[in-house]
């Protein structure tokens, strides 16, 4: 039998193929040198763009105990004749997502606000949604209800509220308990029992803006950057008995550049 002969070029090609195969072979399949432990693949650091999953949150209150304030929230009252805010989980077969909803059942004077803040989570740029049912508690005024965001505390926050009886919506910035109206408009709510209130706070390279929607229609788009990251929550003002369901919060990715523009 004629011995197998390989040219120098063929030997080089075979060696190159072996080297490449070794470089792509899984670590677990490689053979360690005698007496040496096999090297483990070092863990990869998390990406700086990953968002904590707990920031994607929905509260439908269906697993909470009724006649109690939901866990993970804190209640506050500000203004004249505030008294004690009463936020309780209530059983209601007509809830947006049965069987439970959240009810603020202690109306107060026209200069009073009831606030319920989520304790542990903070958002800077977010998409915030709630289902709202607002019932009249007097023959003269219905009061307002809505959401807060960017809250440093119950004296410093952004608020979006609607007065369904007066057909009016407002965006306010509250600093040290004093409210400044950023936007105000008449609205025509849809003839439905449960209304959908939505707030999106986002940013581009040139501006930071707040968008507000009622029942799918955009009502406001305003610019303000007084408050950064903060807590979220719910609010009622004046003689309002409001009911809430399916409070949902999700973070939005900022479109700000990661570094400042180059100087030329």
Please render the helix and strand layout as text:
Elements: H1 8-24, E1 57-59, E2 73-79, E3 87-91, E4 100-104, E5 112-118, E6 126-136, E7 144-153, E8 156-163, E9 168-175, E10 178-186, E11 195-203, E12 208-214, E13 217-223, E14 231-237, E15 240-251
Antiparallel strand pairs: 1-15, 2-5, 3-4, 4-15, 5-14, 6-11, 6-15, 7-8, 7-14, 8-9, 9-10, 11-12, 12-13
Describe the protein's architecture and organization.
With 264 residues, the protein is mostly beta strands. It has a single domain, classed as Jelly Rolls (Sandwich). 6% of the residues lie in helices and 44% in strands. The chain is built from 1 helix and 15 strands, in the order H-E-E-E-E-E-E-E-E-E-E-E-E-E-E-E. The chain is globular, with a radius of gyration of 29 Å. The relative contact order is 0.19. Mean pLDDT is 80; it is low at 23-39, 41-49 and 257-264.
Summarize the structure.
By secondary structure, the protein is mostly beta strands.
Strand content: 35-45%
Regarding quaternary structure, what we see is single chain
Q: Can you tell me the overall shape?
A: globular
The CATH architecture can be named as: Sandwich
From the N-terminal CA to the C-terminal CA, the straight-line distance is: 76 Å
Overall domain count = 1
Q: How much helical structure, as a percent, in the residues?
A: under 10%
Mean pLDDT over all positions:
80
- The rounded Rg comes to 29 Å
For the record, the CATH class is Mainly Beta
Q: What is the helix/strand order?
A: HEEEEEEEEEEEEEEE
Number of helices: 1
Tally of DSSP β-strands? 15
The largest sheet, given as strand count, sense and whether it forms a barrel, is: 8 strands, antiparallel
What is the CATH homologous superfamily assignment?
Answer: Exo-inulinase, domain 1
Could you name the CATH topology? Jelly Rolls
Which ranges are low-confidence, i.e. pLDDT below 50, for 5 or more consecutive residues? Answer: 23-39, 41-49, 257-264
């Amino acid at each position: 039998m004629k011995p197998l002969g390989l040219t120098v070029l063929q030997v080089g090609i075979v060696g190159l193929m072996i080297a490449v195969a070794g470089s792509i072979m899984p670590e677990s399949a490689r053979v360690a040198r005698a007496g040496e432990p096999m090297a483990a693949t070092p863990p990869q650091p998390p990406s700086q763009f990953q968002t904590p999953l707990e920031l994607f949150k929905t509260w439908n209150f269906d697993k909470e105990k009724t006649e109690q304030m939901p866990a993970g929230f804190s209640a506050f009252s500000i203004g004249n004749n505030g008294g004690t805010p009463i936020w309780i989980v209530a059983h209601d077969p007509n809830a947006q997502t049965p069987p439970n909803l959240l009810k603020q059942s202690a109306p107060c004077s026209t200069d009073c606000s009831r606030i319920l803040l989520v304790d542990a989570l903070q958002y800077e740029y977010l998409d915030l949604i709630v289902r709202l049912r607002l019932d009249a508690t007097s023959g003269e005024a219905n009061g307002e209800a809505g959401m807060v965001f960017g809250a440093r505390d119950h004296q410093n926050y952004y608020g979006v509220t609607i007065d369904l009886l007066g057909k009016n919506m407002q965006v306010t910035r509250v600093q040290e308990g004093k409210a400044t109206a950023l936007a105000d408009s008449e609205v025509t709510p849809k003839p439905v029992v449960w209304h959908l209130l939505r707030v999106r706070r986002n940013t581009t390279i040139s501006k930071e803006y707040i968008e507000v929607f009622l029942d799918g229609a955009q009502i406001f788009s305003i610019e303000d950057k007084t408050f950064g990251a903060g807590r979220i929550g719910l609010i009622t003002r004046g003689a309002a008995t409001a009911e809430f369901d399916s409070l949902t919060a999700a973070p939005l990715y900022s479109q700000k550049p990661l570094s400042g523009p180059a100087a030329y």
